[in-house]
């Protein structure tokens, strides 16, 4: 299992609009080969995080262009580009 965690900042006046496009964004992510799970969270200041799971670092690398395309469609809502990192050691703490 491999995780990609991205952080981002939504422009304050774009939070409601960003939240409104989440279902459409989710539909796009469902079409990305290799992505197993993806969760996002945004607080009231617009600070956000995305947690995505892949079966391997290689699967995440193969999905990278498609993921950049999804982020590209969201850039109008963001104060700047997202920051992302990869994590090789993923633990299911509840299961």
Question: Residue-averaged pLDDT, rounded?
Answer: 96
Strand content: 25-35%
Cα Rg: 13 Å
Distance between the termini: 14 Å
Q: What coarse outline follows from CA principal-axis ratios?
A: globular
According to CATH, the fold-level topology is Alpha-Beta Plaits
Which CATH architecture?
Answer: 2-Layer Sandwich
Q: What is the CATH domain class? A: Alpha Beta
| Largest sheet entry | 4 strands, antiparallel
Count of the separate structural domains? 1
Strand segment count? 4
Describe the oligomeric state of these chains in a short phrase.
Answer: single chain
Structural notes for this entry:
The protein has 95 residues and is of the alpha+beta class. It has helices at residues 15-20, 22-30, 57-72; strands spanning 2-9, 37-42, 47-54, 83-87. The model has no long low-confidence stretch (mean pLDDT 96).
List keywords for this structure.
3 helices; globular; single chain; alpha+beta; 4 strands; 4-stranded antiparallel beta sheet; Alpha-Beta Plaits; 95 residues
């Amino acid at each position: 299992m491999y995780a990609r965690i991205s952080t981002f900042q939504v422009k304050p006046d774009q939070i409601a609009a960003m939240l409104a496009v989440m279902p459409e964004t989710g539909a796009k992510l469902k079409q990305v080969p290799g992505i197993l799970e993806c969760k996002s969270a945004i607080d009231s200041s617009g600070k956000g995080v995305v947690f995505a799971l892949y079966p391997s670092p290689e699967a995440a690398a193969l999905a990278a262009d498609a993921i950049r395309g999804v982020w590209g469609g969201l850039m109008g809502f963001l104060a700047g580009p997202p920051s992302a990192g990869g994590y090789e050691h993923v633990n299911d703490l509840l299961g």
